[in-house]
Amino acid sequence: MDQARTSCRRAAVVFAAAAGVALSAGFSFAQPAPAPAASTPAPASISASIPDTIAQRLLACTACHGKEGRAASDGYYPRIAGKPDGYLYNQLLNFREGRRQYRPMIYLVDHLPDAYLREIAVYFSSQHPPYPPPQRVNVSDSVMERGKQLVINGDASKNVPACAACHGSALTGVLPSTPALIGLPRDYINAQFGAWRNGTRRAHAPDCMAQIAERLSRDDISAASAWLASQPLAPDLLPAAASGAKLPLACGSVPQ
After folding, report:
1. Which CATH number belongs to the domain containing residue 197 in this structure?
2. Which of residues 35 and 59 earns the better pLDDT score?
């Protein structure tokens, strides 16, 4: 895990450097470097061999999030491929503006403008690589049943709505800005609930997920993450179309 995170930090450095040099819309995010001396021109063959495409520039993202954004093999970094572009864009803004705290991501997006963050979001939302096999989770049947209950039905005694009520009946997310839960690594789900509970992950008010995280016990969170991570996955999962139905909780990051 530590080795994977070190690789991600290095990738963020590379991405941030590249972003200041070449972006599709021609943005400039850093002071231009001094022009090379006339006697030492950059080899034309090197620049000519690297295509200036959004896919090429975002290879740094895949060092952590896996090829095409399909999720890392270490069981922590989440899948970003195929998620609604509105969700991905909101999260990039949240990292840039301090509502989410993870240093490599903050470093990566700190000086990128809205338009380029939107381009990144649209690119990854259009990627649909196959999902990995579900994780093996070693928990009791009663824990798994509790997780299923929370995800499908919620818990009225705690004023916790079903995950499916917001994230779609198939848990594949809902356009334009609600993410899928199916296929996420268990460690990532647990970590995000922890971040909402301790305030290192926030969203625009009202922050519905922070409210839900406060109402769930650690055992509840562990059960829900175990059930979600262990579910079999169809090969053609896509976010559901927006239905216009009223959400059980007001969420500042979701259009109403």
Report:
1. 1.10.760.10
2. 59
Is the same domain home to 199 and 146?
Answer: yes
**Average pLDDT for the chain:** 86
Average pLDDT over residues 222-227: 98
Vertex 219 angle, CA 145 and 78, to 5°: 85
Kindly report whether the global pTM for this prediction surpasses the value 0.90. Answer: no
Looking from the CA of 75 toward its CB, the CA atoms found within 13 Å total 13
The residue type found at 38 is A
Phi, psi at 146, each rounded to 5°: -65, -40
Cα dihedral 189, 105, 86, 162, rounded to 10, equals: 10
Residue 178 phi, psi (nearest 5): -110, 125
pLDDT tens digits, one per residue of 43-96: 656 566 788 899 999 998 999 999 999 988 777 899 999 999 999 999 999 999
Helix axes 186-198, 218-229, angle to 10 degrees: 150
Q: What is the C-alpha to C-alpha distance for residues 123 and 85, in angstroms, rounded to an integer?
A: 8
Contact of 108 with 20, CB cutoff 8 Å? no
Verify that 156 and 92 share a domain, yes or no: no
Mark whether 77 and 172 lie in a shared domain.
no
Please tell me whether residues 158 and 120 are part of one structural domain: no
- What percent of the chain is predicted at pLDDT more than 90? 68
Q: How confident is the model at residue 244 (pLDDT cuts 50, 70, 90)?
A: confident
Is 21 found in the same domain as 89?
A: yes
234 lies in some domain: no
Q: Would you say how long the chain is, in residues?
A: 256
Total structural domains within the chain: 2
Q: What residues make up the domain containing 106? A: 2-27+54-125
